[in-house]
Each structure stands twice: as structure tokens, then as C-alpha cells.
Design brief:
Blueprint: H1 4-9, H2 32-38, E1 44-48, E2 67-71, E3 84-87, E4 90-93
Parallel strand pairs: 1-2
Antiparallel strand pairs: 2-3, 3-4
């Protein structure tokens, strides 16, 4: 199974010096999403993004997605009640009030 980054840009972290794909995609990376935009499609990504941290060149909107909503922080992506998600480049704070089950 190819890693997530390889699905987007036909590449593999094994040919790069970066450790386990922890660095963001470069600004000039040709991704499937960019090709779809060039063909006239509107693109979206929903869920967990792990190919570029906030304010980097690897964010979903800078890599060919017209709309992104989800996790762009790997720590927050592993919590049940994250304090925020991202809508495009903006952090959206959630009101996740934890209710006592008893």
C-alpha cells in the first residue's frame, strides 16, 4: 500500500532524505488535485491532512484543494474531542463539551 503522499504526487518517501515524510510537500509539487483543477474540476479534502503543517507550502489549499475541512495538526487528529479543526487556512474552534456519562 503506498503511503498517503505517494497517492497525491506519484512519489515515495523512500526516495527522499526526509524522515518518514514529515516535511511538507513543496510548492511546485504536481499533485492529482492540481491536475483535476486544471481540467476544470472543483476539489475538496475532508478529514486528516498530514502532508504539510499550518502556514507551510504543504497545506491542502496550496496543494490543489479548493476546500479543506478537517485536521491539519497531527496531535489534534488523535484526540476524540479536538479543540479545533481547519476550514481552509483558518482554525475553527469547536465547543466540544465533555458530558459525564453517569
Amino acid at each position: 500500500m503506498p503511503e498517503r503522499g505517494a497517492v497525491n504526487n506519484y512519489d515515495s518517501v523512500y526516495v527522499h532524505k526526509e524522515l518518514e515524510g514529515q516535511f511538507p510537500l513543496q510548492a511546485n509539487t504536481m499533485t492529482i488535485e492540481r491536475m483535476m483543477q486544471q481540467a476544470g474540476y472543483t476539489t475538496g479534502c475532508f478529514g486528516k491532512w498530514g502532508l504539510g503543517y499550518p502556514d507551510s507550502e504543504g497545506t491542502p489549499n496550496k496543494q490543489g484543494f479548493d476546500l479543506f475541512y478537517g485536521y491539519n495538526c497531527q496531535r489534534q487528529a488523535h484526540t476524540y474531542y479536538p479543540p479545533f479543526l481547519y476550514k481552509n487556512e483558518d482554525r475553527v474552534y469547536l465547543q466540544n463539551t465533555v458530558i459525564d456519562p453517569h
